[in-house]
Structure formats: structure tokens, C-alpha cells
Amino acid sequence: RTPIPATMERFTVRSFVAPLRTGSFRKLVGMYLGQALAFDIVAATVLYYSLYVVLGANSQVLLGIFIAVNVIAYPIVTWLVGRVSKQRVYATLIPLALLGAAAVAFYPSDGAVALVYVFAFLLAAGMAGAQLMCWVMFPDVLDDAELTTGQRNAGSYAGLMTCIRGIAAAVVIQALGLVLQFTGYRTPVGNEVPVQPDTAVWGIRLFMLVGIIGLLTMGAIFARRYPLTREVALANQVELTRRRDAAARAE
Q1: Are the C-beta atoms of 87 and 226 separated by less than 8 Å?
Q2: How far is CA 73 from CA 51, 79, 95, 156, in A?
Q3: Nearest C-alpha neighbor of 152 from the set 13, 52, 25
Q4: According to the 3-state scheme, what is the secondary structure of the chain?
Q5: 104: Cβ contacts below 8 Å, ≥ 6 apart
Q6: Are 219 and 92 within 8 A, CB to CB?
């Protein structure tokens, strides 16, 4: 375990945001937000989608598809991590997710429900690598930070990453509320399912389309710029081991 410091440091905004000085961490945060907020949009809109956009679709089935795909993808991703760069695992299937998002968003209201589940599966499969990779990449960023700064403040990095994600998620949910408000969404009274105007239905469709495609594209761009390839990450581990051994001998 990392030794507890002899003195407690006072909290300051400057120290809280200090991890953002690490370039690889900034890229990882961009990748993390891209996939996490895209899924937040799916989770936030799925009930509206199943009630008002594609009638007869089941919101629990749609969300269950994402869970099932991640369970299936986990051993595959684990196998790939030892063989290719992690940002490639993150980004390779994102084009499939973009196609799935477009198909789900524009699916006809009176279309066969089974087919929308197929398109949801494509979206989930395209997002699976991105959803599973960010925290797998996190230790590599800590190695990079330790080599650069001489410190390994895992809690500071994880805390800032989680904080930014929480704030961004709140913004996304608020944005959905504003879209519904300005497109004329009719709030249900009791257990009724009101017929929504076309503007509200298209607001839901376009929020899903633009949000998911925009965020996943952002994540893919950050993945392309992410500097810690498999070769670099392995070299960083070797260098850290050398430095730690040298420090131990010096003591």
C-alpha cells in the first residue's frame, strides 16, 4: 500500500485539477466521456423511445441487450488487451455503433419490433469495446503520470475523472429535458400514455442520433490521439520497474 503522508494536504482547486496537466489523462477523460455519456443518452431516452417512437418496443429488453453484449464481449476484450493497443480495442467497432444509432433513431414507428432489437444489438456491439476499456487503460495513465511527475496519485486521477463524468451526465440529462420541453412534449397524467406531437417524437429521435453519434465520434478522435500504445505502455512499465529498483537500492 502507498504510505500515508505524515501531514494532510489542504484541498485546493489547483491541486484537484492538477491531473489534467498529464496529456494522456486528458485524452482518456475524453474517451471516457464519449462512451459514458453516449450510454447515458441511451438509458435516459429508452423509455420515451419505447412509449412514443417505436410503439411496442420494450425498454427493459433494449437495456438488457447492452448488458448482455457487455457480458459476451468481456472475455473477448480481455483476450485482445494482451495483444493489441487498448485504444484500438476502444475505437475499432465505433463505426458499427454509429450505423446502429442511425438505424435506431430513424426506425419507423410502425416497423417490426424485433428488427429494432437487432439494430440495438449493433449499437451495443459497437459500443462494447469503448465501454469496457477506459478503466482498463487507467493504470497505463498512472504509469505515465508517475514517470512524468514522480508521483502516483491514483485517487486524485480517479476522483477527478469521476467528478467530470458526473457533471457531464447532469448536463446531458438537463439537455434532454430542455429538448422535450421545447418540442412540445406532453407530460403524462397518472398512468396515461399521451399521444405526442411529431415535434416531440422527432426531438427524441434527433437527441439520440446527434448525441450518440457526436459523443462516440469525439471518443474515437481522442482514441486516435491517445499516446499510450501497447508498446509505449510496456516500455513505461519497464522504466518504472528500473527506477523503483534503483530507488530501493539507494535506500
Answers
A1: yes
A2: 29, 10, 17, 30
A3: 25
A4: CCCCCCCCCCCCHHHHCHHHHCHHHHHHHHHHHHHHHHHHHHHHHHHHHHHHHCCCCCHHHHHHHHHHHHHHHHHHHHHHHCCCCHHHHHHCCHHHHHHHHHHHHCCCCCCCHHHHHHHHHHHHHHHHHHHHHHHHHHHHHHHHHHHHHCCCCHHHHHHHHHHHHHHHHHHHHHHHHHHHHHCCCCCCCCCCCCCCCHHHHHHHHHHHHHHHHHHHHHHHHHHHHCCCCHHHHHHHHHHHHHHHHHHHHHC
A5: 49, 116, 119, 120, 123, 208
A6: no
What nine digits make up the cell of 34? Answer: 464519449
C-alpha cell at 228: 499510450
- Torsion sign, CA atoms 147, 149, 153, 158: negative
Q: What are phi and psi of 3, to 5 degrees?
A: -60, 145
The 10s digit of each residue's pLDDT in 98-153 is: 999 999 999 999 999 999 999 999 999 999 999 999 999 999 999 999 999 888 88
Quick one: which of 12, 22, 7, 36 has its CA closest to 153?
22
Residue environment code for 136-158, b if the CB has 16+ CB neighbours within 10 A, otherwise e: ebbebbbbbbbeeeeebbbebbe
Cα–Cα distance for residue pair 164/24, rounded to 1 Å = 16
- Please list the rounded mean pLDDT of every run of 10 residues in the chain (251 residues): 70 89 96 97 95 94 95 92 93 96 96 96 96 95 92 90 96 96 92 91 97 97 96 94 85 70
Cell readout for 184 is: 412540445
Cell triple for 77: 476484450
- Alpha-carbon distance of 232 to 144, in angstroms, equals 9
